[in-house]
Amino acid sequence: MPEERPRLLVIDDEPGMLAVVERFAAAEDFEVVTRTGGHALLTELPALKPDVALVDRNMPEVGGLDVLRLIREIDPDCLVILMTAYATVDSAIEAVKLGALDYLSKPLDFGRLRELLDTVRFRRDRRRRLLVADSELASRFEFCGMIGRSPVMQELFDLVRRLAPHARTALITGETGTGKELVARALHTLGPRRDRKFVAFNCAAVVETLFESELFGHTRGAFTGAVEAKAGLFEVADGGTIFLDEVGELPAPVQAKLLRVIEYGEVQRVGAAAGRTVDVRTIAATNRQLFDEVVAGRFRQDLYYRLNVVEINLPSLHERPEDIPCLTAAFVGEFAGRFGKALAGVSPGAERLLHNAPWPGNVRELRNVIERACMLSEGRILSERDVLSVLGAGAPRPARPRAPALPTPGDTPAEPAHNRRTVEQVLQQVGGNRSAAARLLGISRRALYRRLDSFGLR
Question: Are both 231 and 349 inside the same structural domain?
Answer without folding.
Answer: no
